[in-house]
Design brief:
The protein is an alpha+beta fold and 136 residues long. The chain is built from two helices and nine strands, in the order E-E-E-H-E-E-E-E-E-H-E. The protein has a seven-stranded mixed sheet with strand order 1-2-6-5-4-3-9. It has a two-stranded antiparallel sheet with strand order 7-8.
């Protein structure tokens, strides 16, 4: 669990896999670091989101993540919706299985994507800093 801030203002909560010393494919979070966010207009996620949003919808793509190739910020409610990506929502809770889940992921994602896409449109660089929490 985490929070995503844009210019110091909390935008949403995040859900991602924990980091591990040895990567487990599809079940490992990205390491702490600073990553540039670029639009990606190719691949299966782009096709799915373009169909969902009825436009050429670029994915929010984290660059140069060690040990990972295509890491995105996207919609999802639980870790089963992610293979190492960052999911966003308005709130989080723990369900009967003691796992965290996000609520209103779509509601959180749309304005976040709009703000990031607007910055890309102004040819501004967009960066994400991932800070590892020491909470277990």
């Amino acid at each position: 669990m985490g929070e995503l801030l844009l210019d110091g203002i909390r935008q949403c909560v995040t859900l991602e896999w924990i980091t591990r010393e040895q990567k487990l494919p599809g079940k490992t979070g990205i390491p702490a670091g600073k990553y540039q966010l670029l639009p990606r207009r190719a691949g299966e996620m782009h096709r799915l989101y373009s169909n969902r949003f009825h436009c050429n919808h670029p994915m929010i793509w984290l660059q140069d993540v060690p040990g990972f190739e295509y890491v995105y910020i996207h919609i999802g409610n639980g870790l089963s919706d992610s293979k190492g990506c960052i999911l966003v929502g308005t709130t989080s809770s723990r369900n009967y299985d003691a796992n965290y889940y996000l609520r209103n992921s779509y509601v959180a994602y749309v304005p976040l994507h709009k703000a990031i896409a607007a910055a890309w449109g102004r040819e501004e660089e967009v960066w994400l800093e991932v800070i590892e929490s020491h909470e277990k």
